[in-house]
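Homework help board

Subject: predicted structure for assignment chain

Our instructor gave us this sequence and asked us to write out the predicted structure in token form, then describe one feature. I got the tokens but I'm not sure how to describe them. Can anyone check?
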Amino acid sequence: MEKPIIRQSSSNSDLEGILQLQRENLLENLNQETIQKEGFVRVKHSLEDLENLQKDVGHVIAVSGDQVAAYILAMTKQSRDKIPMLLPMFEQFDSIQYQGQLVSDFNYMAVGQVCVGKDYRGLGLFAEAYRAYRDFFKPNYYFAITEISLNNKRSLRAHEKVGFKIIHTFKDQYEEWAIVLWDW
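My token output:
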């Protein structure tokens, strides 16, 4: 297996690779044991969704050969209305504070979703992709922020290892969530 190259997405082929990896790791497609051990992704995007997001900024992808091995979806504040299922996340950002200001007062990057392919887990690719994400976006954005289900323990631990800190927790009608922020 060749070492993945990390770059920003730029083509429909890249976006199709993201969608393939997403399908393999969707909550609805996994058994309970895999969910607990490996984690999951929840939101199912369309090619049009990813194209619309990519108009603002490219997603961070790790590519091995012609396969997307990992991805971090990139969303700006201007992306808030492009994925209706994620609007409540942005609304949470509008109502909570960080360093004495509303999160929405900052120019931030919102992480839409992160996934590392099964064959590439445990190799440090998650942290390496996030370092690239920071390097791509730090010149124009103060921090990265996202929400993670407290049921997705693997994802929460991995984000904390990279440097994300929990700044808020809340419960919706289904489960508890942590809003995590990585201050660059």
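Reply (TA_rk): Your tokens look well-formed. For the description, you could write something like this. The domain at 5-183 is CATH 3.40.630.30 (Aminopeptidase). That's the kind of observation they're looking for.
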